[in-house]
Specification:
The chain contains 9 helices and 17 strands. It is an alpha+beta fold and about 450 residues long. The strands form 3 sheets. Strands 3-2-1-4-5-6 form a 6-stranded antiparallel sheet. The protein has a 5-stranded mixed barrel with strand order 7-12-13-14-17. Strands 10-9-8-11-16 form a 5-stranded mixed sheet, covered by helices on one side.
Length: about 450
């Protein structure tokens, strides 16, 4: 049997969780939950062909939440000793005693808890040593330098391999947990030409080492992206079509998720209040949540409260069918948890069929955005204004790089103004979407 990367067995974590719940019950808690986790990993960073840093990490933690009726207290510790567990529970109970009652506080409803916990193939440890990790990072960086003669400097390439496991248990009898892994290879370089300098990067990340993109391809793309940004121009202020490249298009989906998530909704601080059943996107737009994808970066059989996740169509034919709620926000809204305590699970936006070249042709003349800067989003009104960089496109062909511009609009109009979604799907996170073409936005420059 291969050597385990963990210091604790699953049975040991289960035992610690049971111990914490027993302590909470003995201290007078009417309900309680506990999460115990540990993780470890290796990160090797290379710069100019030389290993610059080697980092080994190992950590563990326990968090306990107790309820005295509808008073809530939480405490945490990184010490798993019996005395430390008792002190942690005592602190949580003490906090709960001095906390105001909240009629929405409490564990998730028992009938919503996950009864099945399928194996989603999330754990693929990588028994890689420092020398091998350094070689992979070194080859990645070398490919970036070889991509273009104008690549003159490097912020480095790094390989990170991380594993973790956790157990969540509560006083309703729920007990669940699983191990997972994540491996990442990244590279960032600097290009220079005529005293102008530009930086860009690329990376690959996956649950299993075999699913990582080729390191030379990652480095080459980082180098090409940095070089193509050289000698950027400004634009005069105008209105035009805007194409968000897939890695930044995921941010548009993130903004939608935030607008229809519990915290913003029950505080009435979202521009999409009461949007269930309303048309927010064009009729061709779909947004699917798929938590059971094998090796998915946001796959999970249950959320951080033990509530079962489920497949659903959050947006169907442009109409909002669901929110993203944990138990507390659901109660605030008079609804039920959607299994999203802790975040969304593998959101997928199907393409309208065009590849990237076809999207450029459909854009015709307008702006391709490859980088966004700042956080110019007013969640209450939907007003959107972000610093940007990218390329000006003429007659469906990239003409020249642009910089020091701002793209602005209102998310309501931007969502309704989506014209096409590319097949160049970004798969390196919890939201899978291709490049998004928006019919018209304001581009502010000179």
């Amino acid at each position: 049997m291969p050597h385990s990367p963990f210091a604790y067995s699953r049975a040991a974590l289960d035992g610690l969780a049971a111990q914490v719940l027993d302590l909470a019950r003995a201290a007078g808690a009417s309900a309680a939950d506990a999460e115990i986790s540990e993780g470890s990993g290796l990160t090797v960073a290379v710069r100019h062909g030389e290993v610059e840093t080697i980092e080994h990490n190992r950590d563990k933690g326990i968090g306990v939440t107790v309820y005295l009726g509808q008073r809530r207290g939480h405490a945490s510790s990184s010490d798993f000793s019996a005395d430390a567990l008792a002190r942690t529970v005592y602190k949580a109970v003490s906090i709960a005693r001095y906390t105001a009652e909240d009629d929405c506080a409490g564990l998730a409803e028992a009938e919503l808890l996950a009864r099945e916990q399928p194996d989603l193939d999330l754990f693929h440890p990588w028994d890689i040593d420092v020398a091998s990790a350094g070689e992979l990072a070194r080859a990645c960086e070398a490919a970036a330098f070889a991509a273009d003669a104008r690549i003159v400097n490097s912020e480095g390439a790094s390989l990170s391999s991380q594993v973790s496991q956790f157990v969540y248990a509560n006083s309703l009898g729920f007990l669940g947990g699983y191990p997972s892994s994540r491996h990442t290879l990244s590279c960032a370089v600097i290009a220079e030409d005529n005293d102008a300098m530009q930086r860009d990067y690329w990376y690959t990340t996956a649950r299993a080492p075999a699913d990582l993109a080729d390191g030379a391809a990652v480095g080459r793309r980082a180098g090409e992206r940095a070089a193509r940004r050289l000698n950027g121009r400004k634009l005069a202020t105008r209105q035009c079509p805007v194409l968000f490249e897939a890695p930044v298009a995921t941010g548009l989906i993130a903004s939608f998720v935030s607008a229809v998530s519990g915290g913003h909704l029950y505080r009435r601080s979202s521009f999409l209040l009461d949007s269930l059943g309303t048309q927010v996107f064009p009729s061709f737009f779909q947004l699917q949540e798929r938590p059971f994808l094998k090796r998915g970066l946001a796959s999970a059989p249950f959320d951080s409260e033990g509530v079962a996740t489920r497949e659903r169509d959050v947006v169907a034919d442009g109409v909002v069918n669901g929110y993203f709620l944990g138990s507390y926000s659901a109660r605030k809204l008079g609804m039920h948890s959607t299994g999203n305590a802790g975040g969304n699970h593998n959101l997928i936006v199907p393409s309208t069929g065009e590849d990237f070249a076809a999207l450029l042709r459909k854009l015709d003349t307008g702006l391709l955005v490859t980088e966004l800067l700042g956080h110019g989003l007013n969640m209450v009104t939907g007003d959107y204004s972000r610093g940007a960089a990218g390329f000006w496109v003429e007659n469906g062909v990239i003409a020249y790089p642009v910089e020091e511009i701002t793209v602005a609009g209102n998310l309501r109009d931007m969502f309704r103004g989506i014209v096409a979604i590319g097949s160049d799907v970004e798969t390196r996170g919890s939201r899978r979407v291709g490049s998004i073409l928006i019919e018209r936005m304001t581009v502010a420059g000179d």
